[in-house]
Structure formats: structure tokens, C-alpha cells
């Protein structure tokens, strides 16, 4: 690949600061080297954090994002910065999970996307959030997210 395909990107190949809020983060699309091939890309973030909008206490999740790229991929550094921007952001589990997915869709227009948010318990209740854009395309291999359901001490 030549350097000119990355012109206009905000994060790739340069020093970057963690955005203070998700609205300040920008996902960088990069050209998919195999746009005619149906395949799945998986991003796993086992240490995602945000803030409870009611109590101000930290919330923790294990996110699994699967997507079938079309013309563009999500550049991973910009994705990491987006996820880090939620660290001081007050929002409910459902909002954070779906917001991450919708930002990826807006940035790269994938053929298909699924997000699984496995939130660690607060107040004794784990909250798991799942969303996908529709049925997976025919022929797309979609593995299990690989995260065991919460079982407490049992």
C-alpha cells in the first residue's frame, strides 16, 4: 500500500490524544484490500469502561464487535481511541453498546455488523446487550462471540 491512500486520516501514523468524549472521537476508514471477498473482522475489547449516568460509578464491559467489511475497514487505532473516549462518559450500558456499533456503521458502511456487550454486574445484575444489523449475509462464517455468560461464584 502507498502512503497516499491514508491522506486525510486523523489518527493513523501520528501521535494522538485520547478524546475526552465520544463526540470528539473520529473513526478512520481505510481501504479494504479485499472488497469483493465476504469475510468477518472481529474487534474484542475486554476492558471497556464508561460511567453510570446516575451514580457516577465506573462500569466495565467486554465488547465483541463483528463486521463484514465492504469498501472500508475501521482503522484499529482510531477504534481504540473511540472506545477510550467512553471512559468518562455517562451513559447506560445499552446506550454505550449500541452507540459504538452505530459509529462503526456510519464510518465504514459494513455489509453486516453485530455487537455483543457483556457488562459486569453492578448491584448484582449483569446486563448483556446484543444488536445486529440484520441476518448475516449468506455464506458468512460468524463464530460464537466466545464470552461465557456470567455465573457469579457458581
Essential attributes:
two-stranded antiparallel sheet; about 15% helix; preQ1 synthase activity; four-stranded antiparallel beta sheet; 2 helices; NADP; cytoplasm
Question: Could you describe the 3D structure shown?
Answer:
It contains two helices and six strands, in the order ββββααββ. It is of the alpha+beta class and 154 residues long. The protein is 16% helix and 31% strand. It has one domain (18-132): 2-Layer Sandwich (GTP Cyclohydrolase I, domain 2), CATH 3.30.1130.10. The protein has a four-stranded antiparallel β-sheet with strand order 2-3-5-6, covered by helices on one side. Strands 1-4 form a two-stranded antiparallel ribbon. It has helices spanning 76-84, 93-108, and strands at residues 29-31, 41-51, 58-68, 72-74, 112-122, 125-132. Belongs to the GTP cyclohydrolase I family. QueF type 1 subfamily.
- Count every helix, treating DSSP H or I runs of 4 or more residues as helices: 2
Q: Which structural class do the helices and strands define? A: alpha+beta
Provide the residue-averaged pLDDT. Answer: 91
Residues in helices, as a percent range: 10-25%
CATH first level: which class?
A: Alpha Beta
Gross CATH architecture: 2-Layer Sandwich
From the N-terminal CA to the C-terminal CA, the straight-line distance is: 50 Å
- The beta-strand count equals 6
**Quaternary:** single chain
CATH superfamily: GTP cyclohydrolase I, C-terminal domain/NADPH-dependent 7-cyano-7-deazaguanine reductase, N-terminal domain
| Number of individual domains | 1
CATH topology: GTP Cyclohydrolase I, domain 2
Largest sheet: 4 strands, antiparallel
Shape: globular
- Low-pLDDT parts are 1-7
Provide the gyration radius in Å.
Answer: 16 Å
Strand line-up of the largest beta sheet: 2-3-5-6
Secondary-structure element series: EEEEHHEE
Pathway: tRNA modification; tRNA-queuosine biosynthesis
Keywords: Cytoplasm, NADP, Oxidoreductase, Queuosine biosynthesis
Main location: cytoplasm
Active site: 52, 59
